[in-house]
User: Which sequence fits this backbone?
């Protein structure tokens, strides 16, 4: 009975750690800081926390995980990552307008959210996480994840950069086979998962599938984004790196 009580107390304490204190909604954050999605930066916000929770579930078990989130914007997906139990969330945001809202979230999350005001295309991730999480390449993946609702303008050059780093086991992949859960516009997603003989088959398909197991989790309706993207329905892809 004593051990059952101890287990219940431990579970309750963990839940208390994960649960965030009351915060303004993402919509209120956008109004509070007068945030608008910039078309030239191909920004589209996800405001529905049920959808961001669903995206995070596709990343797998994030309990005590280290996470790099790319382009958090107003922080909807970030909240879902924190709620999923991540111990350390590094958000990399190029647009300084979003920093004050992310700082609010970081304070509410008791410092579990670290903020880097930087361009992910030139940002070095290898020094941002502790060495002790490193796994051998042939071992299970490290408890380290890349998650992001990628701005469509950077999604292709960014995935190419990461595929190159996977092949050389450098950057964030020096820790092992870091998993990626990312949104792509439909055209890029179709190229990433295209099978031999498909019209969408390209060098990107071959590179991605040679290095990773690429799975399309689900399509995200355009109406879920604010503003609705000009491109066709985005897709969420999970990339699990091969040994």
Assistant:
């Amino acid at each position: 009975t004593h051990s059952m009580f101890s287990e219940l107390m431990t579970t309750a304490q963990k839940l208390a750690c994960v649960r965030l204190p009351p915060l303004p909604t993402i919509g209120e954050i956008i109004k509070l800081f007068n945030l608008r999605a910039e078309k030239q930066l191909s920004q589209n916000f996800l405001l529905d926390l049920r959808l961001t929770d669903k995206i995070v579930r596709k990343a797998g078990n994030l309990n005590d995980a280290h996470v790099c989130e790319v382009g958090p914007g107003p922080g909807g997906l970030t909240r879902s990552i924190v709620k999923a139990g991540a111990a350390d969330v590094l958000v990399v945001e190029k647009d300084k307008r979003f920093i004050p809202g992310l700082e609010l979230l970081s304070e509410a999350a008791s410092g579990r959210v670290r903020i880097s005001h930087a361009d992910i295309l030139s940002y070095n991730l290898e020094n941002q996480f502790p060495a002790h999480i490193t796994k051998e390449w042939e071992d299970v993946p490290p408890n380290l994840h890349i998650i992001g609702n990628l701005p469509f303008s950077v999604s292709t050059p960014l995935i190419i950069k990461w595929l190159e780093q996977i092949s050389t086991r450098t950057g964030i992949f020096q820790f092992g086979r870091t998993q990626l859960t990312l949104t792509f516009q439909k055209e890029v997603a179709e190229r990433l998962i295209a099978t031999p003989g498909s019209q969408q088959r390209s060098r990107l398909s071959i590179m991605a599938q040679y290095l990773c197991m690429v799975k399309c989790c689900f399509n995200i309706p355009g109406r879920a984004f604010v503003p609705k993207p000009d491109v066709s329905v985005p897709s969420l892809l999970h990339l699990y790196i091969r040994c």
